Amino acid sequence: MEPSEALRRLHEHAEHLDVDRDTVEFVAGTVAAAAAGTLPDALRQQLAHFLRRADADGRDLTALLLADVAGVTALPDLVAAAEVDMGDQYLLHETIDGLIRSGGAMARWLLTDMIGNGSSGQRAAALRLLEPIVEPADVTLLGGAASDPDPKIRVPALEALAGLPGDAAAVTLLVGGLQDQDPGVRAAAIDLLAGQGDPAAVAPLSPLTTDPEPRVRRRLAYALGRLGRDEGDGGPAQATLQIMLRDDDPAVRDRAQAALGEIGGAQAAGMLLAGASSADPRQRAHAAKALARLVDEDPRAEERIRSLARDPDAGVRAAVLSGLATVGDITGRWESLVNALAGDSDVTVRHRVVGTAVHLLPYPDEILILLSTDPSGFVREAAALALSRRRR
């Protein structure tokens, strides 16, 4: 590109970005002083200058112009520039994405070269950028990145491999990530395998019920809930979740109950009904929320929910309302239950009634009008806001 055309593009970009005059003139001076063949390198130096000064406007203006002048060969420079986070990275990332879309095979080659030879930050960024355009031919390269000493490299490598759900070698590497020494990597591998939606993933996931990290086991329970929906009643996911109901960590047990509610079926209902009879009020609360998903599948669910609405623990009564609000309902079957809890002695329960009523339609405004005069200002404000939104 000739310097005269570059200057025209510069002023177009500057007008669009609303960059200050001094910055525009500074870049224009660089363009005017450079010969056509040296302009890309001059702009690379200019980009480095703005990065050192943490000047986001100058960086964006120069990056756009460099992309115009150098085309896809500017990709490594812009990826390196994106390593310096100045807060507003949107335009820079958009420019990078545009080069990848238009760059074809050259863009792929540049990304894979960065993955093999770039700095740690460039490698991680290039792995994330490769994900949407990953091909089976990349598996060997990605396998090497998935065993990198740095977990910040291993995670995006696994994310890119997850873009090849039908590739046996890629799936094998994802399964290998479940044994990674870093819990963050193991958690990422769980999510990625579950995200592929293949119930066969339950088998390699199940041994993680004994993972030493509770956060990994919580992620496992969530993943099993996603996979179990496609298994049918009594599948391996439910069996694994049943084990997790006895986990030492209460948050893991809670997540397992929620996952069973998402899966549904007679076996899941039986497990949740048992949890609803637990001596632990937290277990009863999470069972109450999960059972709300099963009222159309198992008549025992509705009966137990109505019983839990009278539980001596206010947290359980509030959980009943949360479950109903999450599921929603248009039959009007819960109106008497909600009305009764609107007179509950606990302020949290009454406040939860407000949030529940707006999700159960058709539901009369009378209960919200009543709560708008509640002794608690916390409840009054919520009810008044809900009424104003319903009347718009």
UniProtKB/TrEMBL annotation:
InterPro entries: ARM-like, ARM-type_fold, PBS_lyase_HEAT
SUPFAM superfamilies: ARM repeat (SSF48371)
Molecular function terms, GO-annotated: oxidoreductase activity
Domain of life: Bacteria
Pfam families, sorted: HEAT_2
Protein name: PBS lyase
